[in-house]
Amino acid sequence: MKNKAVIRTLVLLLAFVFALSVTGCDNKPTQGTTSITTAAPTPTTQTPTTAAPKEVLPDVPANRYDATKTPRTGNNATKPLVVSTGTLDGKFNPFFYTSGYDGDVISLTQISLLYYNKYGAPEAGINVPSFAYDYKQEVSADNSTSTYTFILKNGITFSDGKPVTAKDVLFSIYVLCDPAYDGISTFYTMNIQGLKEYRLQTSADVLEMVDKILESGIKTGENGEMVINPASGVTAEQQEAFWKYLDEAGENFAQEIIDYVNTNYVSYIPSYFAPYTPEQVASDPNLQAAYGMVMWGFGELDEDGKFTDSMGNSYDLSKDTVDAKIYWKNILDAYGYDLTDAGINYEKAGELTIQDYVCQAYISNEGRAAGGVKSISGITSGKIVCDDGVEREYIKVVTDGVDPTAIFKLGVVVAPMHYYTDGYKGQLNEYGVVLDSKEFMDFLKTKNSKPVGAGPYVFQEYKDNVVTYTANDNFMMGSPKIKTFRYQEITLGAELDAVKTGTVHYSDPSASMAIINDITSKQGDYAKLDYILVDNDGYGYIGIQGQAIPEFEVRKALAHAFNVQLAVDDHYGELASVNYRTMTKVLWAYPDNPENMFPYDGTGETSKALFLKAGYVYDEANNIMKYPEGHEKAGQQVTFKFTLPSEAKDHPAGSIFVDAQKVLDKIGVKVDIEIDQNLLSKLSTAYESGIQVWAAAWGGGGVDPDMFQVWYSDPAVNQGTSPARSGLYYLYNNGTEEEKAMLRELNELIIAGRSTLDTEERKAIYKRALELSTGIAVEIPTYQRKNMFVYNAEVIKSSTLFRGDDVTPFQSPISFIWNVELN
Amino acid sequence: MWKYLVKRILLAILILFGVSALIYMLSMLLPGDYIDIQTSAALQSGAMTLEDVQRLKELYGLADKSFAGIMKSYYSWLLSTLKGDLGFSFLYGKPVTEVLSEYVWMSFIIAFISYVLQIIIAIPMGIKAAVRQYGIYDYIVSVFAMMGASLPSFFLSALLMNVFAIKLGILPLQGLTSATILFARDDYVGIFLDKAWHLILPITVLTLLNVGGTMRYTRTNMLEVLNSDYIRTARAKGLSEKTVVYKHAFRNTMIPLVTSLSGMLPGLFGGAMITETVFALPGIGYMAYRATRQGDIPFIMGYNMFLAILTVAGMLISDFMYMVVDPRVKLS
Question: What fold, for B102-289?
Answer without folding.
Answer: MetI-like fold (1.10.3720)
